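DM from R.C. (forwarded with permission)

"hey, sorry to bug you on a friday — could you get me a structure for this? deadline for the figure draft is monday and I only need the backbone to look sensible"
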Amino acid sequence: MTFINSNSYPKSIANNLLNGIFVRMKNAYGIKKISLRVNEKELLVYTTLAEKAVGYRKLLADHGLVVYLQADGTTIELFGPGSVYPEYLFSGSDSVVSYRVSDIETTVSELERTGAKTLSPIQRGTSGYRFCHLAINGKAVFGVFENV
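My reply, with the result:
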């Protein structure tokens, strides 16, 4: 691993290197969204952690749903009291992990062939992405999404 010492590079070069690293991280595939169903006390703890200790950027706070963005592009969704979500979303547990993929149709087909059950058809989100939720053995719910 190479560490960037800002004292050894002109500031503009160091900034360009670091910005390039973060752009690549934001465009990476894999786990890019974590959704949690939380009660009122847990919501307070998680929002305090996100805002005061970790410094995540708040994207949305509306009717019990609070959404944060990490520096690497991962989204954290906190579904608190009063938030609305599909009944199946937290049917297996209070957490759902979603993976960014390059081709959602191919991914969903492959996952179905290996035994995953589709819980929702591929849908278009409001901010330029397509997503689908699946389950393993009717319990472990997870999502896949593709940026469009």
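R.C.: lifesaver. The CA atoms of residues 22 and 71 lie 7 Å apart.
me: no worries. Confidence is low (pLDDT under 50) at residues 1-25.
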